[in-house]
UniProtKB/TrEMBL annotation, chain B:
<dbReference type="Pfam" id="PF10369">
    <property type="entry name" value="ALS_ss_C"/>
</dbReference>
<dbReference type="GO" id="GO:1990610">
    <property type="term" value="F:acetolactate synthase regulator activity"/>
</dbReference>
<dbReference type="GO" id="GO:0003984">
    <property type="term" value="F:acetolactate synthase activity"/>
</dbReference>
<dbReference type="InterPro" id="IPR019455">
    <property type="entry name" value="Acetolactate_synth_ssu_C"/>
</dbReference>
<comment type="pathway">
    <text>Amino-acid biosynthesis; L-isoleucine biosynthesis; L-isoleucine from 2-oxobutanoate: step 1/4.</text>
</comment>
<feature type="domain" description="ACT">
    <location>
        <begin position="9"/>
        <end position="88"/>
    </location>
</feature>
<dbReference type="InterPro" id="IPR004789">
    <property type="entry name" value="Acetalactate_synth_ssu"/>
</dbReference>
<protein>
    <recommendedName>
        <fullName>Acetolactate synthase small subunit</fullName>
        <ecNumber>2.2.1.6</ecNumber>
    </recommendedName>
</protein>
<dbReference type="GO" id="GO:0005829">
    <property type="term" value="C:cytosol"/>
</dbReference>
<dbReference type="InterPro" id="IPR054480">
    <property type="entry name" value="AHAS_small-like_ACT"/>
</dbReference>
<comment type="pathway">
    <text>Amino-acid biosynthesis; L-valine biosynthesis; L-valine from pyruvate: step 1/4.</text>
</comment>
<dbReference type="InterPro" id="IPR002912">
    <property type="entry name" value="ACT_dom"/>
</dbReference>
<dbReference type="GO" id="GO:0009099">
    <property type="term" value="P:L-valine biosynthetic process"/>
</dbReference>
<comment type="similarity">
    <text>Belongs to the acetolactate synthase small subunit family.</text>
</comment>
<dbReference type="InterPro" id="IPR045865">
    <property type="entry name" value="ACT-like_dom_sf"/>
</dbReference>
<keyword id="KW-0808">Transferase</keyword>
<comment type="function">
    <text>Catalyzes the conversion of 2 pyruvate molecules into acetolactate in the first common step of the biosynthetic pathway of the branched-amino acids such as leucine, isoleucine, and valine.</text>
</comment>
Length: 461, 168
């Protein structure tokens, strides 16, 4: 071990994996591989690394070698405690302004039906985190979309006024909580999570249930008694009407327009992947997600260059589906060589390139909080992306005018012989709104660029 | 010392495997805990090890840190014992400067603490002390005026009283 590019992979990976193994004796291999899959797939799933030295990979082992294993230090509490489930049920039943917050944990556990049943029985509005998108259909009357830093105005307003928040596999991330120490003190909080470490980590909760979301919600349903949320639901509908997401359709082409049109044309059936940045937030706002696992983003890891490779995986796994990689001109260029893979495999991925010639989200922060002193964000060296597509033997489209959006996207959706790049040359200086400045509470939400100078944000980037 | 920065005694029962220590140490490091002492050795069943850690850090994050330790696949159990009545021992070797005049007094003091004299030279004496950590602190404080040259301590060991099993 430890030569050329192979060395020390375990040492570097400790902080970012769920578990790792170094196999020294080839006979251990069947058992270790079984353990690795078991750990990676159960509980709160996560990556597991199995480091195989060369002498192990080239060794011969007896096919009958036992793959059995025991993991005394690894147990999962799947069923929540009945006591806390009953407590949660009575809190939900008596709440007048409750909200369900659906996160990635709900998606992983496959709790869509259970959530729907509770929402419909109890008439509770739903918000979803970025990674919870699709677990509850965004077209539903009671869905408020994503809350938080770039969430919808009505989701944030509802959070500011609610009396109970039920997190189902969502970890009160700072993109949602803003300032965790004073996050919605008026509301009681319930947290359902399979990972005990997440309980009271950032936000102190009033009731916690450690268990698998699907199983917990299933037994919770039986204890719920229909409360009175009629006025609350009315208020939610009014907020949705009064503060819709909006952008100008005239003038220069807007990213929001391109994304919203793609969402409309694919009718909630596309699998959408994103990078990180402005395009990601606009995709979260304007790409309405109807089904679970139809919106793939790197979430808390915040890694650019994720969208296109993720689209390749999604298309390989779902050959019959439309896969749209919404990427920025910055992130897309981090994984350009993957174009060869997509071309070779003839994967009909639609690469929707939101091209504003900037690292737009960083430019937005420099604009809003640092007097527009721009540094390291101008991508003036960008290639001609249509020619770049041609260079890889991939189809290229370009859209520059609002009037052409539907036509060009339609043509791209009709092209299925391989990947295509849709180079959408959009307004360079557009900013994502609503915005809650980092580290501020949700009532500090900005709906548009304020006239007066903003303070430097307190929270992280 | 800051109000919330407290010394904590944590006892772990873990798989006796390579890499376990680094995973545990990373949890402490990530939460800003300073490890004061660390003792690990195979348990009675040698597929497992027992580890005693004494660490200083924020009391508020302790609960979270214990959950993170328990989440590690190789950790069977992790538990805090700071304010509990458990049997607690530590061993130390203390080397102290001496001369003809001070030798008798040093022997008297160390005798009172039931220290064992393990080495003696013209200018030094070395003692072995066992007991609670506070006893070791007291001995080394008493010997300070003669000139303590070196102190080597094992770190704190814990075992539960009666039938109860440690770190369960």
């Amino acid at each position: 071990m430890g030569y050329i590019s192979g060395g020390r992979c375990l040492r570097y990976s400790y902080p970012i994996v769920k578990h790792s193994f170094l196999v020294k004796d080839p006979k251990e291999l069947p058992s270790v591989i079984n353990q690795a899959f078991h750990i990676a797939n159960t509980g709160r799933p996560g990556p597991v690394i199995v480091d195989l030295p060369k002498d192990v990979t080239s060794a011969l082992i007896d096919v009958d070698t036992s793959g059995e294993f025991t993991l005394p230090g690894y147990s999962i509490r799947k069923e929540g405690s009945l006591e806390s489930i009953k407590e949660a049920a009575s809190m939900i039943s008596s709440a007048e302004k409750p909200i369900l917050m659906v996160g990635h944990g709900a998606v992983i556990s496959g709790a869509t039906q259970e959530i729907k049943a509770i929402v419909e029985k109890m008439q509770i509005p739903v918000i979803n985190t970025l990674l919870g998108k699709g677990c509850f259909p965004e077209s539903h009357d009671l869905n408020l979309g994503m809350p938080g830093m770039h969430g919808t105005a009505y989701a944030n307003m509802a959070l500011c006024d609610c009396d109970l928040i039920v997190s189902i596999g969502a970890r009160w991330d700072d993109r949602i909580a803003g300032s965790p120490s004073d996050f919605q003190p008026q509301a009681k909080k319930i947290h359902i999570d399979i990972d005990p470490v997440e309980i009271n980590k950032t936000v102190q909760v009033d009731c916690s249930i450690i268990g698998d979301a699907k199983s917990v919600l299933n037994s919770l349903y039986g204890f719920l008694e229909k409360g009175n949320t009629q006025r609350w639901v009315k208020q939610i509908r009014r907020l949705k009407r009064e503060y819709p997401l909006k952008y100008k359709k005239e003038g220069k082409l807007r990213a929001q327009h391109v994304i919203e049109e793609m969402s409309r044309l694919t009718e909630g059936n596309a699998i959408v992947t994103t990078d990180v940045g402005q395009h990601q937030m606009w995709a979260a706002q304007f790409f309405k997600t109807e089904h679970t696992r139809h919106f793939l983003s790197s979430g808390g890891a915040g890694t650019m260059g994720f969208g296109f490779p993720a689209a390749i995986g999604a298309q390989m796994a779902n050959p019959g589906k439309i896969v749209v990689a919404v990427v920025g001109d910055g992130g897309f260029q981090m994984t350009l060589p993957e174009l060869s893979t997509a071309v070779n495999e003839k994967l009909p991925i639609k690469i929707l390139l939101i091209n504003n010639n900037y690292l737009g989200m960083v430019r937005q922060w420099q604009h809003m909080f640092y007097d527009n002193r721009l540094s390291g964000v101008d991508l003036e060296g960008n290639p001609d992306f249509v020619k770049l597509a041609g260079a890889y033997g991939c189809k290229g489209f370009r859209v520059k005018r609002s009037a052409d959006v539907r036509k060009v996207l339609g043509a791209a959706l009709a092209y299925n012989d391989g990947p295509c790049i849709i180079d959408a040359e959009v307004e360079k200086y557009d900013n994502v709104f609503p915005m809650v400045p980092s580290g501020a509470s949700l009532d500090k939400m900005l709906l548009s660029m304020p006239r007066k100078k903003l303070e430097k944000p307190k929270g992280g980037t | 010392m800051n109000e919330t920065q407290k010394r904590h005694n944590i006892s772990l029962y873990v798989e006796n495997k390579p890499g376990v220590t680094i995973r545990i140490a990373l949890v402490f490091a990530r939460r800003g805990y300073n490890i004061e002492s660390f003792v690990g050795s195979p348990a009675q069943d040698d597929r497992y090890s027992r580890i005693n850690i004494e660490a200083t850090g924020d009391s508020q994050t302790l609960h979270l840190m214990l959950e993170q330790l328990n989440r590690l696949v190789d950790v069977i159990h992790a538990r805090e014992y700071s304010d509990e009545d458990v049997i607690q021992k530590e061993l130390a070797l203390i080397k102290v400067r001496c001369n003809n005049e001070s030798r008798t007094e040093i022997l008297q003091i160390t005798g009172a603490f039931k220290c064992r004299n393990v080495d003696i030279s013209d200018t030094t004496m070395t003692f072995q002390v066992t007991g609670k950590s506070s006893k070791i602190d007291a001995v080394s404080k008493m010997l300070d005026k003669f000139g303590v040259l070196e102190v080597v301590r094992t770190g704190k060991l814990l075992i539960a009283r009666g039938k109860e099993e440690t770190s369960w």
